[in-house]
Amino acid sequence: AALPGPAPADWAQAPLDPAVRAVLVGFDEHFSYAKLCQALRYLLRGGPDCLLVGTNRDHRLPLEGGTAIPGTGCLVKAVETAAQREAFIVGKPNRYMFDCVASEFDIDPARTIMVGDRLDTDILMGNSCGLTTLLTLTGVTTLDEVKGHQESDCPTRQSLVPDYYVDSIADLLPALGD
Amino acid sequence: SGMASCRRLSGAGLREVLGSAEGLLFDCDGVLWAGESAVPGAPELLERLRRSGKAALFVSNNSRRSVAELERRFSRLGFRGVRAEHVFSSALCSALFLRQRLLGEAGNGDNGGGRVFVLGGEGLRGEVRGAGLRLAGEGEPLPGAGEPVRAVLVGYDDQFTFAKLAQACGYLRDPQCLLVATDPDPWHPLSDGQRTPGTGSLTAAVETASGRKAVVVGKPNTYMFDCIVERFGVDPSRTLMVGDRLETDILFGKNCGLSTILTLTGVSRLEEAQAYMASDSAAAKDLVPNYYVDSIADLIPGLDE
């Protein structure tokens, strides 16, 4: 619904939908201060009875040509900061999506491989969920980054290190029978 | 010295504390006024301070208004004798900070220091221009054809959009481009008890997207106090900080070596100060005020007739 008036004091008078029980923050290229205001109003009205959920925390979405645009994580952070509370994050590296897959299909983590190109989402989730992790180098991560984590003393960085890597997932073909 | 003890300021203690002070620094929102109404007795307090020969200066994290607008606001709400030069807003001090960093001591020759991309309203933009800096426009394609953008300034921006966030991040890919925020406040109270998001929430978005940490000009950081000392030469040991927000005003006072008075007409509740006092954390102790009053009108009896 359109917000009355040009200023936050006006927006704060707009009626709130009594049925709203969750604020969900996803990728929103039309994100604005006015929407942030409304999110804050619902969260304050509902307190712990209003969920705050974020689809993921990615900082940046890479575009072709090496540039990037802000990711959903930025918008989640804005809402969390204003509301002074933490969002439940659905996406990788959190395990919720793995739990969804595992509950729908009979997955044995010990016999499942997670394939991804990002250490802090794909590989971290795979490692946290007890999967074998395989990094492919066709995306954002370089081998040098992995080596840096491998050589560090920090356990958090160690959890970003995959079990295996390939230059591309096409490299998996020879292992599969004709 | 040990932890502050959050004592109610009244009677003989009040006369002693005010008697030995040369001046007071006041936060504005929630201290002098709430919305469009002065706190009852606040204009009289300032008048009595003037007559007692004590200085009153103002230090506000609110980056919406220029100090010229604030001077008019003081007058409109019934406060006499407050001039723009007495008012240190985060908008003004951010502009001064950027002037120092971009134009430097001796100016920057033909380079002119570069441009500033401001996420904020006209009050903030005016202070930046007033400091001799040029602004980058919204919606300019990158890389810009004009002078390089040497700083992104995040302030209170009720017209903040994803597009502006993306534009800011484009400039911040240059590691030489500064990221500055006017203040860290996560939200501000509205007159009906609701809250509106603050600069802190917008800064969090820019920091997350750019991978950079902002330099925050406003309270509780001490830069605004440096600006005050440079202009008026106050002695921290003879100056009191009066504010309503523990995490900004009281911590600012602690960081600048000022004794602090919490007034209860604004954001923070007495219970919160007491909780900080009871906490085991060293950081929490710094948020405990030396004194508190229900309203700054309660300071009036501490001054001579």
From TrEMBL, chain A:
Gene Ontology annotations for the cellular component aspect, listed alphabetically: cytosol; plasma membrane
Q: Name one GO molecular function term.
A: sn-glycerol 3-phosphatase activity
Q: Which InterPro entries match?
A: HAD-like_sf, HAD_sf
Q: Where in the cell is it found?
A: Cell membrane; Cytoplasm, Cytosol
Q: How does it sit in the membrane?
A: Peripheral membrane protein
Highest taxon of source:
Eukaryota
Q: Which residues form a coiled coil?
A: none
Q: Which UniProt keywords apply?
A: Cell membrane, Cytoplasm, Membrane
What gene does the UniProt entry assign to this protein? Pgp
Q: What is this protein called?
A: PGP phosphatase
Q: Which Pfam families does its entry note?
A: Hydrolase_like
UniProtKB/TrEMBL annotation, chain B:
Q: Which GO terms describe its molecular function?
A: metal ion binding; protein serine/threonine phosphatase activity; pyridoxal phosphatase activity
Q: Which co-factor is required?
A: Mg(2+)
Q: How does it sit in the membrane?
A: Peripheral membrane protein
Q: Which UniProt keywords apply?
A: Cell membrane, Cell projection, Cytoplasm, Cytoskeleton, Hydrolase, Magnesium, Membrane, Metal-binding, Pyridoxal phosphate
Amino acids binding Mg(2+): 27, 29, 244
Query: Reaction(s) catalyzed by this protein?
Result: O-phospho-L-seryl-[protein] + H2O = L-seryl-[protein] + phosphate; pyridoxal 5'-phosphate + H2O = pyridoxal + phosphate; pyridoxamine + phosphate = pyridoxamine 5'-phosphate + H2O; pyridoxine 5'-phosphate + H2O = pyridoxine + phosphate
Its localization reads:
Cell projection, Lamellipodium membrane; Cell projection, Ruffle membrane; Cytoplasm, Cytoskeleton; Cytoplasm, Cytosol
Keyword set includes Acetylation: no
Main location group:
membrane
* Positions that bind substrate: 60-62, 188, 219
Any single GO CC term annotated in Swiss-Prot or TrEMBL for this entry: cytosol
The record's remark on the cofactor is: Divalent metal ions. Mg(2+) is the most effective.
Signal sequence annotation: none
According to the UniProt entry, what is the EC number of this protein? 3.1.3.16, 3.1.3.74
The active site consists of 27 (proton donor), 29 (proton donor)
Give the UniProt family note: Belongs to the HAD-like hydrolase superfamily.
What functional role does this protein have?
Functions as a pyridoxal phosphate (PLP) phosphatase, which also catalyzes the dephosphorylation of pyridoxine 5'-phosphate (PNP) and pyridoxamine 5'-phosphate (PMP), with order of substrate preference PLP > PNP > PMP and therefore plays a role in vitamin B6 metabolism. Also functions as a protein serine phosphatase that specifically dephosphorylates 'Ser-3' in proteins of the actin-depolymerizing factor (ADF)/cofilin family like CFL1 and DSTN. Thereby, regulates cofilin-dependent actin cytoskeleton reorganization, being required for normal progress through mitosis and normal cytokinesis.
Database matches in NCBIfam families: HAD-SF-IIA, PGP_euk
- Please give the subunit comment from the record: Homodimer.
**Annotated PANTHER family:** 4-NITROPHENYLPHOSPHATASE-RELATED, CHRONOPHIN
The molecule here is called Chronophin
